[in-house]
Amino acid sequence: MIEAGKEQRRSAPILSVAGLKKYFPIRKGLFRKTVGNVLALDGVSFSVNEGETLGLVGESGCGKTTTGRTLLHLVKPTEGTVLFRQMPVGEMLRKDPAGVRRKMQIIFQDPYGSLNPRMNVRDIVGEAVRYHGIARGKDADGYVADILEQCGLRPEHRFRYPHEFSGGQRQRIGIARALAVKPEFVVCDEPVSALDVSIQSQVLNLLCDLRERLDLTYLFISHDLSVIRYISDRVAVMYLGKIVELAPKKAFFAAPLHPYAEALLSAIPVPDPVKQRKRIILEGDVPSPVSPPSGCRFHTRCAHVMDRCRHEEPALLDGGSGHFVACFLHHEEGGGTV
Predict the structure, then answer these.
(1) In whole numbers, what is the pLDDT of the chain averaged over residues?
(2) In this prediction, what percent of the chain has a pLDDT beyond 70?
(3) Is pLDDT at 76 greater than 70 in this prediction?
(4) Domain boundary assignment for the chain
(5) What local confidence, expressed as pLDDT, does residue 327 receive?
(6) What gap in Å lies between CA 138 and CA 151, rounded to an integer?
(7) Euclidean distance between CA atoms 207 and 175, whole angstroms
């Protein structure tokens, strides 16, 4: 019965995103006139089911981090809607900003720059605990100690400062800070990319354990498909401000549909000297997000490009069993949108 309840929650979206856009203006001259825009996000739509981990993967500069920050309105969206439990996040922030910040948290990529060097761990983790009224005084001190233990640190660590810890320990402090306010949804913005490989596995196991124990939902951002494969339930592939493929993990790694996703998977090393994987080398550079190509944004680097790819933009359609792809090679009449 418990497992059935979990599966039912996983099928219900906790977060829904539709037509999300974020343009950063380019200003020049004495009067800082806007002469163009960086199209960081240009029509992103997806949902995250309760209790699952959605992995968001793509090259550097494709808009992954901007997506995570825009969902939380740390960066104000240019256009589009973000619904948390069917309520617009922007409207929720106007009515109850503290309540939204408590429900939706972020773990930052840089374990060094995301912690205040002048505050000890007790204050770093306990500041939000006291602000939201979760605990005060001695109770708050004990609460912080418990959270640190859950994240693999010792209670006495709360009296130390960030410079006294290793990179892995600092990231655990960042995780403790995010989880201290008992959030429901957490954006993990490349939380292991700055860590050694041996420490990466420890932090990933910690995140998996905390997800099950605290019933959390993650949007996990990474450029490493091996990490995405380990922690995610579904995978979304991003290219130049757009999602080009969205699928369950098993289906994606067994048979990716988009040519860009195929190229990404071909770059994963195979830990077996006997087996060989055919490497797909993409030609050309990633186009500028200031003036992206017309039609399909990947057509300038695609080996399967057709004439319509240069003029028509493929929608993200369901190719079957919840495997969405934005590619004319796999589009059929009647495919459902994401």
Answers:
(1) 91
(2) 94
(3) yes
(4) 2-232
(5) 95
(6) 20
(7) 8
Q: How confident is the model at residue 267 (pLDDT cuts 50, 70, 90)?
A: confident
Structure tokens at 161: 């400062």
Q: How far, rounded to the nearest angstrom, does the alpha carbon of residue 206 sit from its chain's CA centroid?
A: 17
For 102: left if phi > 0, alpha if psi spans -120 to 50, otherwise beta; the answer is alpha
Q: CB of 238 within 8 A of CB of 57?
A: yes
Which positions ≥6 away from 142 have C-beta within 8 Å?
A: 135
Contacts of 120 (CB under 8 A, 6+ apart): 158, 159, 160, 161
- For residue 332, name the pLDDT band (cuts at 50, 70, 90): low
SS3 89: helix
* Structure tokens given for 196: 């050694």
Pick the CATH number of 2-232 from 3.10.450.50, 3.40.50.300, 3.30.70.1560, 3.40.1080.10: 3.40.50.300
Please report the pLDDT score of residue 334 as a whole number.
43
* Model confidence at 333: pLDDT above 50: no
Helix spans in 255-295 (H): 259-266
Query: Would the pLDDT of 4 be above 70?
Result: no
Instruction: Spell out the residues 6+ positions from residue 7 whose beta carbon is closer than 8 angstroms to its own.
Output: none
DSSP secondary-structure letter at 330? Answer: G
d(CA 41, CA 239): 10
